[in-house]
Structure prediction request, 754 residues.
Amino acid sequence: MTKLIINDREIEVRDGAMIIQAAAEAGVEIPHYCYHPDLPVDGNCRMCLVDVEKMPKLTPACATTVAEGMVVRTNNERVKEAVRGVLEFLLVNHPVDCPVCDQAGECRLQDYYMVYGLHTSEIPLEMKVRKRKVIDLGPMVVLDTERCVLCSRCVRFCDHVTGTGELQFFGRGDHVEIGTFEDRPILNPYSGNVVDICPVGALTSRDFRFKCRVWFLHSTDSVCAGCSTGCNVRIDHRDGTIFRVIPRRNVDVNKSWLCDEGRMSFHEVSKGDRVKFPLIKGRDGMQAPAEWSEAVTVAHSGLKEAARKYGPVSVLGLASASATNEALFLFKRYLAEQLGAELLEFRLDSEDTRVLEREDDVLRRLDKHPNAKGALMLGLTSERLGGVEGAISEARAGRIKAAVVTYYGPLVRRDSDELAEAKIAELIDALEYSVVLAAHKAEWQAKANVVLPVTAWTEEEGTYTNYQGRVQAVGKALHAPGDSLPAWSIFAALLEAAGDKSIWLSAADVLSTIAQAAPEFANLDLNAVKWPGSVAG
Amino acid sequence: MKKASKVINVSDRAGRESSFTKEVLGPLVGMKLTISRMAQNLTGQISPTISYPEERRRYSDRYRGAHILTARQDGTPRCVACYMCATACPADCIYIEPGQHPDPLIEKFPTRFEIDMLRCVFCGYCVEACPEEAIIMSRQSEICALARDETVWGIERLMRRPELKEFGLGFRPNDKLVDSALAVTPKVKQAEKMAGRITLKENVEMIPHVTFDPSPD
Prediction:
């Protein structure tokens, strides 16, 4: 550890840290454009200049390693004057088109101008160097070269994180522009990140373009449900509509990044028709909407009846790797304790092995479910069945008569999705009695005896366990459509109908029960679940 | 004797000094203005009442009446859909939907811009917030409609304003950007322009989007 003094405060940081990191730990903000904690240091923007005692000139805080006994000042007149000058230079050719710029409201140029600048521009607008605007850089990015401060964050991202190297500087002097060769699109699967890391409005999102001014948005912290990596995200929404999903920094999971598929996955939730009300199949074979109390009673008595008639071995529980830990835990509790079911399964397509397999070297994993690890840890696999195929053949052979089936549509699409859905349809076809929990409508649900509407990702609170075994909290950004309820509360209602005396008022209640009752989650840190996640088991 | 006495008898003195001039003419002289005004009113020479709507008062140049969306020289709205007005609006009565403009120097324009005139409180904050002088106010105070949905004014209604011939421009913080000659009475020949739309003055260089012509390279 190294001791140094920043603004008369003595602080201790790890050896080899940069001054800017030490200052951040001490709560001192040093303005910067090019420095990014998850990218190599470049030191080109000169905004982070600080005064270090016994150094003749000001030095960039992002590129100076701390030393024992160093005395740093970030707020004296010399520093302020320098930073003001740097900012004035950065703004010399800036077009000041904030009214049409999507970055306005979260722009570092605006923020730092208000704190450090407040100068009058010496360059009239018509004398500024004009550059190209509105350049289409593929499905995720729109480039405006005029607004760029040439910090090279995006260049370094493409060089060092994805290794694809699409972006580069072109030209010399004040005509330098950022760009791709012949304006070719940036097609790497992480291209959306360059928009997030751009401190100004040079790179803006194509999907979010002109959708909403950022100051109208409300934010909810959550976790991406696109694959088993479990990247931390922030959901920005307004009036019941999600406008964008952007990464939250979590060094242990996703650093500051998010893949494009995960970024776009929120569109899947609003696609297609939702199951809005509980449906019960009548004597005529048609499903009719019903009240929750009735649906829960019917579902429970139907399952109980099947368990009595054919024995508990004939009842199958098919969980989903997209359900929260809370839902899975109560699902298991209901089926195993109240119905005596032994066959619990969640695998549709060998999720247990794919959960750890990487799709590429950055973030993505092959298993496109957020909580396969959680289902594995809760023991929702059956060796006898070995997956949903086993359940289908057992059901065909007449050994499985009834089932509770939970199914969420995948948020990141792959070709095998239709196959997985076809398997569930096949299973329900072969059953005598089935209770289906689903968020989106599908044809195969028509054969189920009871369909219960569940909330989808972004509409419920809960936790997912990612591939590392890290339990992370998911937030509720929107109200669920119709009467749909979180899956955990449906199982809580079924448990109540079955005579279980426990009461859970929220997903957090269920999680504390999990921490007490499930040995796999015994060392769960309930405080860390919100952030940065707690590695259980 | 008088000097020695410190008591002054007021009624004595009043009686001694009273006369016809003081008692009757005095008040009449004092009420000269009142009486003459009354006479003028009775004979119709002056009147505080006007025969509205045939006659109208001229409101102040800062009057905050129905809004106007100003136009570029080609007739399209100057609005760039930046939402500053909607952000500033305390009545939440402005609804905007932006679109992508084919000209990269304009970039953004409103495909829908609606003001709910029934919700509007005519505070003028939208005008003050506008960075492009795209929304200003007129002196039009009569906003009548036969149906409720007619009171939600869209882009067309806010831009094409033949009735402004009669009312003129109202609150607009920056005169230079909008032709102020139009603000005077309809008799001025300039006002003919106003029948169609508000036109721009020449000194629009201040707004980069309007006049800047980037070199073709």
Remarks:
- Chain B touches chain A through 23 residues (CB under 8 Å).
- Residues 10-43 of chain B form one domain.
- The CA atoms of residues 54 and 166 of chain B lie 12 Å apart.
- The beta strands of chain B are 67-69, 94-100, 108-116, 135-137, 152-153.
